[in-house]
């Protein structure tokens, strides 16, 4: 189903994320705790990022892929002293638990636990996030690299882990803490000036910024290079699941399609063919109505072109635009 017309509250939250600060409750996202002495080596071998270089207090985005480098999920990992916490998409927790479990061999010192129900996750989104973080007593995080995190007390809530990064292309922070403190932390954030953002508004912003989602942009049809998730891929680390395919695609410039944003003139159905004249050049993967009109995400064949390209999406006309979350070349 397409996202329906934004109500005033959603529009205000998206505006706040653009020029102020919004807060979104992401507690329905999955949280997997990976512990045991071999945890970093294990995750290093199972996904696209270089985990071996990470120290406690650091983090990264990484993509879990199949053996043929097809995308499963885009995950944020936070390395702690005793474990790594994976923040995974809402509909991917059980699947990833089972997927990862398959690769734990008898001698591996790795344990997985689903801690979703015991924890909450909120994200602060927008340029005003720093001011909120300062009021919460976590100002030393300001200016630190993406994924860096520390534990704070937001009285009376203890054990609030605050990390750099909003989960979107906007600046921000992500807080993870025990489920018992949900109301306390939420109210403190609102008191500090954040505007409440619904899941629906988050999804509109996700599409506008180009963050890929499972079952839409992240499926068995696409690899991380086509998605444009270069920031998650280490080309220098050793072997991992899907590595051969990714290395080959990069070496031989074999990426045949890319994810783009599409400004649309009217409603379009997800799954619609994207065409230039009579020729099909791609597929629409997400669609939303925004305060400024209609917008979608879709994969376009590399040879067809990029920014500024005029296309037909189903019965609707559209134009290809850049999206800030992804990149089409190695940084």
Describe this structure in words.
This protein has helices at residues 8-19, 39-46, 93-102, 129-135, 182-191, 199-209, 224-227, 243-251, and strands at residues 22-25, 30-35, 59-65, 71-79, 83-88, 111-114, 119-125, 149-154, 157-164, 172-178, 195-197, 257-264, 273-276, 279-290, 293-301, 310-313, 316-321. With 331 residues, the chain is an alpha+beta fold. The strands form 3 sheets. It has a 6-stranded mixed beta sheet with strand order 8-9-10-7-1-11. The protein has a 6-stranded antiparallel β-barrel with strand order 12-15-14-13-16-17. A 5-stranded antiparallel beta sheet has the order 3-4-5-2-6, covered by helices on one side. Strand 3 and strand 4 (71-79) form a beta hairpin. Helix 1 (8-19) crosses helix 6. The radius of gyration is 20 Å and the shape is globular. The mean pLDDT is 95.
């Amino acid at each position: 189903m397409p996202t329906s017309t934004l109500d005033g509250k959603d529009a205000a939250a998206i505006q706040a994320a653009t020029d102020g600060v919004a807060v979104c409750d992401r507690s329905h996202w999955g949280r997997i705790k990976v512990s045991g002495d071999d945890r970093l080596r294990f995750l290093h071998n199972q996904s696209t990022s270089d985990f071996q270089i990470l120290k406690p207090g650091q983090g990264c985005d990484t993509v879990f892929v199949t053996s043929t480098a097809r995308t499963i999920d885009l995950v944020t990992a936070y390395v702690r002293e005793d474990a790594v916490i994976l923040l995974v998409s809402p509909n991917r927790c059980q699947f990833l638990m089972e997927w990862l479990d398959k690769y734990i061999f008898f001698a591996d010192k790795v344990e997985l636990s689903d801690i979703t129900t015991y924890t909450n996750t909120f994200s602060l989104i927008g340029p005003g996030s720093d001011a909120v973080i300062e009021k919460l007593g976590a100002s030393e995080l300001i200016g630190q690299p993406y994924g860096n995190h520390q534990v704070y007390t937001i009285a009376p809530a203890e054990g609030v882990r605050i990390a750099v990064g909003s989960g979107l292309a906007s600046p921000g922070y992500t807080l993870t803490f025990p489920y018992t403190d949900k109301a306390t932390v939420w109210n403190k954030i609102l008191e500090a000036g954040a505007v409440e953002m619904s899941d629906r508004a988050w999804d509109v912003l996700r599409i506008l910024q180009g963050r890929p989602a499972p079952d839409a942009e992240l499926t068995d049809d696409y690899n991380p290079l086509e998605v444009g998730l270069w920031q998650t891929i280490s080309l220098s680390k050793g072997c991992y699941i899907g590595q051969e395919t990714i290395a080959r695609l990069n070496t031989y410039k074999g990426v045949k399609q890319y994810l783009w944003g599409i400004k649309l003139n009217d409603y379009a159905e997800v799954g619609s063919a994207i065409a230039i004249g009579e020729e099909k050049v791609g597929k629409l993967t997400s669609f939303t109505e925004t305060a400024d009109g209609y917008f979608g995400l879709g994969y376009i064949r590399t040879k067809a072109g990029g920014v500024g390209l005029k296309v037909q999406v189903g019965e609707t006309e559209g134009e290809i635009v850049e999206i800030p979350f992804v990149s089409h070349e190695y940084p």
